[in-house]
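Quarterly update from the structural biology core.
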Amino acid sequence: ATPTRLGLAYGDLGAEIWGFTKRRVSTRVYVTDDRGIVIFDSSGTDVGRDYSRWNDVYLTLRGRYGARSTRADPNDETSTVMYVAAPIVDHSNGAERILGVLTVAKPNQSIAPFIARSQRTILRWGMVLLGTALAIGLLASWWLSRQLGILRSYADAVTAGERVTPPAVPGEFGDLGRALETMRERLEGKQYVEQYVHALTHELKSPIAAIRGSAELVEAGADTMPAADRARFLATIREQGDRMAEMVDKMLALAAVEHRQSLEQPDVVDLVAVVHEAVHRLDPKLARRGIVVRESGAAASVRGDAFLLRQAVMNLVDNAADFSPDGAVIEVGVERDGSRCRIVVADRGAGVPEFALARAFDRFYSLPRPGGGSRSSGLGLCFVAEVAALHGGKATLGPREGGGAVVAIDLPG
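Predicted structure, tokenized:
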């Protein structure tokens, strides 16, 4: 082959290499002898020249890796050419002898498009990866912030005394939520017991004092006390004993409701049936005083606990009867307004003083009964309010037009 055939004689190649069109051959090949003298040059320009001092030839002749990068134009830094050499070895006679050097040269500029494209590709994918990492980071931050926000809202609700259930959050946040719930239950349990013991002790003082006083009087006048006085004092003992028993029963019922954070297995409850059953259970007591209960209302149902709702209505009707005169009429109705349902109990009794409206649902708060009757336990309306809250509703109390009072339990339908 001649230098011309190995050089640039083929013209436009028109080859496609990795998306780039190859127009001409840019590779140069030259061979030197064992002294570094060029004996073949594909470009046909340097035959006979001494290349023994060039690194590619110099190092290869000494059995080392030979390569160099040299500018074709000393004034142009982009004109560098990479030279890589390999030894020409004679293996005859059982020994290796370097006969010369074969060097292949290629301008670095010929691979510049590939390098530029690689840079663009790396930059593009680097930006994609950076954007993806940023998006993942933002998403992770948002998720962490959201979980912490849920726990913070739960803690704020507990601090405000609201009835809330622990949030359903995954992983470590779920463990933290359960730990907060356990801590809340234990702290509230201690405070709850302390408050109840203090309140119960205070409320039991009056009936115990009445029982003790009546018992002392009966004992002191065992032989001389008139029968009428004896019967009156014994009735007082029995009445105050019943009051204490009622107070304990209502406290147990109230404690059971207050301790619950939600309804475990709510069912569809027919409010009309609940009202009818509650009134029916109070018929004997109402009949002794000639009190009539009028039931009214359209069909309405809610999701809840029928037993608790029935006990709440019984408390309302019983309370209305206590403040109504004998032979009075109490009206109990069920109303529906869009997505809300209401159980309304209205009486024509003495009504509730304005100063008592704000405290009517407080634990142990009660007013004297008409006709000099003793106070109640003060737990009935508190029980009603707790049942309403447990069902996602609320209890209200206000004066009735024309005299009396109106109590309502507002529930989501």
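The longest strand covers residues 80-90.
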